[in-house]
Amino acid sequence: MSEWYSWGLNKGGALAxxxxxxxSTPQIIKSITNATDITGGASHTVFLTSNGDVFTCGANxxxxxxxxxxxxxxxxxxxxxAKSIIKTAASNNCGHTLLLDSxxxxxxxxxxxxxxxxxxxxxxxxxxxxxxxxENVKITNIVAGGNGVDGYSLALAENGDLFAxxxxxxxxxxxxxxxxxxxxxxxxxxxxxxxxAAGSNHSFALRSNGQLFAFGRNDYGQLGLGDVEHRYAPExxxxxxxxxxxxxxxAGEYSLVLLEDSTLYVFGSNDEGQLGMGDKVQREVPxxxxxxxxxxxxxxxxxxxxxxxxxxxxxxxxxxRNDDKQLGLGDKTEVMRSPAQVSIQGKIKDIAVGCFNSxxxxxxxxxxxxxxxxxxxxxxxxxxxxxxxxxxxxxxxEKKTKILESM
Length: 407
Fold this sequence. Notes:
Layout: E1 2-8, E2 23-28, E3 35-40, E4 44-49, E5 54-59, E6 73-79, E7 85-90, E8 96-101, E9 106-110, E10 125-130, E11 139-147, E12 150-157, E13 162-166, E14 181-186, E15 193-198, E16 202-207, E17 212-216, E18 231-236, E19 245-250, E20 254-259, E21 264-268, E22 283-288, E23 297-302, E24 306-311, E25 316-321, E26 335-342, E27 347-353, E28 357-363, H1 365-368, H2 379-387, H3 393-405
Antiparallel strand pairs: 1-2, 1-28, 3-4, 4-5, 5-6, 7-8, 8-9, 9-10, 11-12, 12-13, 13-14, 15-16, 16-17, 17-18, 19-20, 20-21, 21-22, 23-24, 24-25, 25-26, 27-28
Helix pairs in contact: 2-3
């Protein structure tokens, strides 16, 4: 059996724990049991189930929970009127939400101050509405970005075309200007795109030939182009040419790029230790992350100022800002500039973040295997469970210590 855990800022009930009390350590979410994926927004959370239903909770000032009202706080997940959904997106620090269904149609709701809902107007919506401008395009992926109310959205079509709309002050739409768009607009300069990412006001698009393009705000070097000049049109991140990129995260004012061989590149703002390099120095070019030597990172989740990294041995490491206890380390320091491990009993299968909170999907050890004993003969069995990824290195060490102490 797998269960979601949550911790960190709980404004509006975003942690799905039935109240608005922040949590400093991971807590089991009991209010929803069949969620397969989580997307975190500024202060709201979107749950996707295996049958395509969507549940939301948290702050709802702009209708970003999509429940047909603007009730200030939704303390437990509530089902919204949407079917056959395969993908959800919510901006890390903005109040709008996107949904993608199995037919390739896109729906949106929440804040619409800059046209980020794609309706052709600036009217907020508290229920999911079809984006009609994309009705005849089969969309395969969606992402949402923004800072405060200046949200924006990106959608990737089946043929590799990229569409952008919403706020564009820094060129984050890649359209070679700074004008907002209230309906999805094709980014003509880009084609054959396979992956994309949206941050506070900066974006990335990966071409099928491996070229990574960056555009938008760049005052901290978050585009990885070696300077701090904004880009209003996509420009290739040449230092990453030829790299086999598997994941791109654009967050507050920093960026993360993960390669197939598990090499991680970090760049951008680092005031809060969000690059995990043990210092406060910003990087204006992609820099190899050295904080987890001999660990293979398989998945990343990037909040406004904090990062979660999951390894192939089911270990969870965190770094960055911790003033809302979003790192899950208890009452430790407000900033963690180097990676620290989060203790969760069980096999961690997935991770997600909101702006200032975090989530992890965990398979309980009691359900996933029968525990060996604590004799010397059992040490080999514990080692086998570690190799199979059923327990973390931390759990193995704890059991080994107990066995050796009992001798």
